[in-house]
Amino acid sequence: MRATGQAMSKTREALAFSLETTPAACGAPPCEEGGPILDLVHLSRQTLGDDTLEAELLGLFDRQAGQFAARLAPALRPGEEKWRADLAHTLKGSARAVGAVAVARAAEAYEAAARADGRDLADRWAGLDAAIADARSAIAQLFDRG
Fold it and tell me: What is the pTM assigned to this prediction?
């Protein structure tokens, strides 16, 4: 999955204003509806405008988010709260780095629930799963795969 900087640049403007969260992707507080799925301006700042680096980071995030989603999807079993919170924390940081705003917020809510008592984890997972799906779909659109 290698996108050229030129291919990303062509679609960036077209997608910049259309990549908005939906209520389903938001899940639960503190996620705010209507915010960006991907903040491409933030990503550009992080990479100093290097389109090739942006493409590489988005590709890495796409794969990581898919792997983390697969690990978090099964129902919670006793004693899993800590590693699930740690995984959500890692995902939150990665999402913030690439500008995946909705994923970061949903991961933060999931992490907080896992660190508390795990009771709301199923609800938080639904929001996180939807945010991950939206971000991965947006990345696919950027790479002309969607």
Answer: 0.78
Per the CB < 8 A criterion, the answer to whether 21 and 31 are in contact is yes
Domain range holding 128? 5-142
**DSSP for residue 99:** T
Torsion from C-alpha of 108, 87, 139, 31, nearest 10 degrees: -10
User: Residue 82 and residue 19: Cα distance in Å, rounded?
Assistant: 32
- Count H helices, E strands: the chain? 7, 0
Q: What is the pLDDT of residues 122-143, one digit of tens each?
A: 999 999 999 999 999 999 999 8
Long-range residue pairs from 113-121, CB within 8 A, at least 24 positions apart, any chain? 114/81, 114/82, 114/84, 114/85, 114/88, 115/81, 115/85, 117/81, 118/76, 118/81, 120/28, 121/76, 121/81, 121/84
Q: Is the separation of the CB atoms in 25 and 132 below 8 Å? A: no
The structural domain count of the chain equals 1
For residue 34, the number of C-alpha atoms closer than 13 Å in the C-beta half-sphere is 0
